[in-house]
Amino acid sequence: MITRFITEVNTKFNPFSTRSRATRLFLSSLPPNARSGGMQINTSLLPRNSKAPATLQVKFKDGKEMSLDGEQLGIKGIIEELDRHSRALQKQADLTDG
Questions:
Q1: Which contacts (CB < 8 Å, 24+ apart) does range 16-19 have?
Q2: Do the Cβ atoms of 80 and 70 come closer than 8 Å?
Q3: Whose CB has fewer CB within 10 Å in the chain, the N or C terminal residue?
Q4: Percentages (nearest 5) of helix, strand, coil residues in the chain
Q5: pTM for the predicted model, two decimal places
């Protein structure tokens, strides 16, 4: 997963719910040095008996914001969507650099 272009990650989920699995896996797949690299990660935990859906919002360096539904996409779908935009930003950065 290309995390170089991600500037902010906002999540809200119930850690005990099976529907929040993709959101939990996404957070665990972020590199350990993500915060020191300038990424802002905000996590809100819902109470155990909460029925509210898990939310995942990601902001990129170019200003694009994505709200992803982990329950429908799954972890593979989330990574695929984020990588699609990150690859476009990578191509754009490569063209401006040389």
A1: 16/48, 17/50, 17/54, 19/53, 19/54, 19/70, 19/71
A2: no
A3: C
A4: 40, 25, 35
A5: 0.89
Cβ atoms within 10 A of the Cβ of 67, count?
9
Q: Concatenated DSSP letters for 27-60?
A: HHHS-TTTTTTT-EEEEEEPPTT--PPPEEEEEE
Question: Which tens digits make up the pLDDT trace of 5-16?
Answer: 999 999 999 999
Contact indicator for 9, 1 with CB cutoff of 8 Å: no
Report residue 5 as tokens.
Answer: 């272009």
Residue 28 phi/psi, 5° resolution? -75, -20
Q: Please give the order of strands across the beta sheet that includes 55-60.
A: 40-45, 6-13, 55-60, 65-68
Structure tokens at 26: 């996404």
